[in-house]
């Protein structure tokens, strides 16, 4: 890690570390907060059971796929595996509505835009600003 800091410069290195922290927090939010079912489809005969199962399958599916300590999945892979799970009392219509929302990737628009913006800023900083070490750095 010391070599990376020296190569990138202290400001860029800390920028990357902060960006990683922000992206991890965003991923944790996505894993723990399922998109809400705002209105149930016509084929949904048990809205309460549907919402309870949707919450459970989100946490046990997407939460596990995104936060797996040994093999965390990127969002697209997590969604692919998530769609293969059994959805209990979630009706086919509600499932289709929710998959439409998930497939729109609205939740990851923030992360994608953030990554693009931070990459541009860090590249600019690496190219146009000299690498400085922090005042009392052992580097």
Defining traits:
139 residues; mainly alpha
Could you write a compact summary of the structure shown?
By secondary structure, the protein is an all-alpha fold.
Task: Give the helix/strand layout.
Elements: H1 2-8, H2 10-32, H3 47-67, H4 75-82, H5 92-103, H6 106-128
The description of the largest β-sheet is: none
Overall mean pLDDT:
84
What is the succession of H and E elements?
A: HHHHHH
How many β-strand stretches?
Answer: 0
Indicate the radius of gyration in whole angstroms. Answer: 20 Å
Find the structural class using helix and strand composition. Answer: mainly alpha
Q: Label the overall shape.
A: elongated
Which percent range fits the helix content? Answer: 55-70%
Proportion of beta-strand residues: under 5%
- Uncertain stretches of 5 or more adjacent residues: none
Number of DSSP helices?
6
């Amino acid at each position: 890690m010391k070599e990376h800091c020296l190569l990138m410069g202290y400001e860029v290195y800390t920028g990357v570390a902060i960006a990683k922290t922000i992206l991890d927090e965003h991923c944790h939010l996505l894993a723990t907060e399922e998109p809400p079912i705002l209105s149930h489809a016509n084929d949904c005969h048990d809205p309460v059971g549907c919402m309870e199962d949707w919450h459970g399958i989100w946490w046990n599916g997407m939460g596990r796929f995104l936060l797996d300590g040994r093999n965390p999945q990127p969002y697209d892979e997590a969604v692919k595996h998530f769609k293969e799970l059994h959805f209990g009392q979630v009706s086919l219509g509600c499932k289709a509505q929710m998959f439409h929302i998930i497939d729109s990737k609205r939740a990851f628009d923030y992360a994608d835009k953030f990554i693009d913006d931070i990459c541009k800023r860090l590249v600019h900083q690496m190219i146009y600003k000299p690498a400085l070490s922090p005042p009392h750095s052992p580097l």
